[in-house]
Amino acid sequence: MAHLRDSATSVAALAAALACTPALAQTAPDPVAQTVPDAPEAQDDAGEIIVTGTRILSSGFTAPTPTTIIGEEEIARNAQPNIFNAVIQLPSLQGSTGASTGTFSTSSGTQGLSSFSLRGLGTIRTLTLLDGQRVVGANVTGVPDISMFPQLLVKRVDVVTGGASASYGSDAVGGVVNFITDTRFTGFKANVQGGITTYGDDAQALVQAAVGKALFDDRLHLIASAEYDHEDGVGPGDFGTDLAGKRDWYRATTLFNTGQTNNGLPQFVVGDYAQPYQYARYGLINNGPLQGIAFDVNGTPYNFNYGSGGVPQGNGRVSNCYPGNSFCVGGDLSGAPGSGASLKSALERINGFGRIGYDFADDNEVYFTANIAQVKTSNQPSPGYNRPNLTVQCANPFLPQLVRDRCASAGITSFNFGSSNGNFPDPKVSTDRRQYRFVGGVKGKFGVGGSDWRYDAYYAHGTTIADIDVDTIVLQNRYVAATNAITLNGAIVCADAAARAAGCQPINIFGGMAPSAAALAYVTPENGPFQHTKLTQDVASLNFSGEPLNLWAGPLSVAFGGEYRKEYYRVTGDPYGAGVTSVSPNSAAYPADPLLNAPLGSNWAAGNYKNGTGKYDVYEGFLELNLPLFNSDAIGRANLNGAGRVTHYSTSGTVWAWKVGGTWDTPVDGIRLRAVTSRDVRAPNLSELFAAPTVTTLPSFNDPFNNVAVQAFQNTVGNPNLKPEIARNTELGIVYSKPSWLPGLSLSFDYYSIKLDGVISTLSADQIVRFCYEGNQAFCGGFVLNSPVQGGNYINVQPFNLASWKTSGFDIEASYRWQRPLGLPGSFTLRALGTHVREFIVDAGIAGVDKVDQAGANSGNTPSWKWLAVQSYSNDSFSFNVQERWFSDGVFGNQYVVCTSACPVSTGNHPTIDRNRMKGAFYVDIGGSVNFTNEISSFFKVDNLFDHDPEAMPQTNTGLDVNPALYDTLGRTYRVGVRARF
Q: The whole model's pTM is what?
């Protein structure tokens, strides 16, 4: 990854780097695209020196915060349809979200949302900026969508791997990612590329163009860009283990729960081909004397083939299987829905950007920008409709006579039934995010007392409109009514008279016969779950930077300023999901129905969006100083950098952030030392403060009290009493760059430690129930698991400022640039970046809940080691590069106790398991380009050259058993394209 690992040297060093950079037709000669060991301050159009890790603007300043810079050439070389995919390859970025994450989710609203996470701290703790300015969030968590940025105009991306709250405010706990655009671009450039996977899916088409013009003696600058990107996505697969595109790595790997905690054997056993024994694709009787009778596609009953040599016991359990989560091993897997989720959301984005700037005086500009973008995604979270707990009457006229006779012989009138409803249409989740962002500002330079001062003032207004539509999701009470059929006057009808009056149409659930159009319209109406969200952000900012004094070792540099920000959101769900105040929802699209729980909502099987609104205001001011300590040949050059910021939130009061650090260019050839410590903050976002309840369906939740799996709802609600999180961030580093004996060499090592207190977090639904089961009464008032009412089982989850996190590790970087290797024209470059996570300790802050170290847990975001290496050769005619991405082997979770016999008692804090290892991955990418002329070039890229399959991540349910935030789930991908610049 092309990069610059320090935050400053001088403009002269930058110019020197440019002099040795070969120009390629596909990009403008860009100094930051090459490895310059003393990461520079990059000059922008008005002569400012932009250093993302600080507000100080000075040609002699060296900031103490490590910064990686990805230049225009590197962005082009990665040939990604979204610049986001190039940036997340950096090892320090862990847990970012994109089009391949969240695809098996219905209600999250984050499908296809491209957002960064540094240090594994989550996307909400990484501040993403566009030209140093905040961007309106793409959903209620406040994180922006990188897909909406003007990507072809990006000159470079600065990634600050350290706390920056004193400089930029809230959210910069993990660091800052700043996109710097070319505000003085002139000419025309375009990029056209396409791509496809080796499995023939995820076809991609990207078209980008930008134009810039300078008028009136270079005083008026007009810039416009537009882009269109279409990505088909991958998936879905089918029931069982069949993934999309003949991918064969899915094995339904699961943590089988024996249900035993103190018999000397492990509670959890890792295995493949988990077979749910409560349901089958077209129906399975799962309790009572007829347990084990299933139905084929024609509705013909047969004896279900349980794995593990299982035999139904008549009480809902199966011998030789696992009662803790109702699984057998092997057998008939045709009803398992895990492989039916999309592997990547389909995505379509349209982006338009314009900027007009006018130099009303030398080095002074007034400007206006407009960014209008739309991103649409779609995914399938699962196939059919998984329903493991339906009561069926033996008198149901759709039931085969053979089974009705067996009912009579057994003396029963009803039985429990589970089905994946493979005859139902598959659900589809579609999102539509539209962003409108406008910025007006003035920036430049003025003189005071013989010294130059720089200023930057702007006002930004952003609006995001986000809609989520879910198609063919079942209304659960209507489904129950439609499946309870009787014969009346010679016709098969719904048994419930009130349901019949409201339009109920009977459904045959025994076999694969598709329901009638009228029945589907009743159970899965055209107007399905819906959420409409409006977010607005207003920012007014004024900043100054100058050098008021010349001291013994150089100028004293000062930066100060203030900012006002207002965040607002409103979210509205459909009446069937959100609930209404009366039986009539006053909408023809969602007519009143006595079967639906109108006041409370939550009628859908998934996608029960709620209503909510909230806002807050922020006032803040900051001061940053850089004091030169000494500057001589004998002892080198050193500076001390400090900053403070006071912020007042309308919701939580006043909070302080600060930082103190410095650098020392030692007299030893090429060695620089740097250190910084800071107090950083993250204020609770709108979702955490005011979130409408988010309802997530848990189809097979383990009830430890009765040792059975039940369907339950997880209700996640906001907490307006939350306070800001407080972090202490420390970094120590050494840089060895451009030694006289080998000027092309650069090495760096940086240690980091982050302690985050008052973390806004929640326990999982499983933890809440488990801790109550183990005797901690504090957890027992927030759930019900044995309700006889349809949809009555629930677990309430709410965020609190109780947890604390601690993570530490180090970053290593090395690069060497060889000009004219072996006498050949051009240059050869070697680069490697690595991050080691020593610890990532999560303390829930709740009595009875033990700390957990998540470092090395490959089921999460923080593998122990993560590396990126690049070898590239380029000259005026062509370029070729090889890239390796690797992360280390890990575990499912460090909380587990591994044993096969003589096991200790298994607890919620430390469950026992027979195996706890999750392999890492090694990926190889290749790419290259050919310059046809000075203006036109072609390129190619192959990602995951050897088609490396992802490692299984065992689950305790039937979800997709993989971690797409860490592993490549798509396989080998090819891309080709043409670039032009005039």
A: 0.89
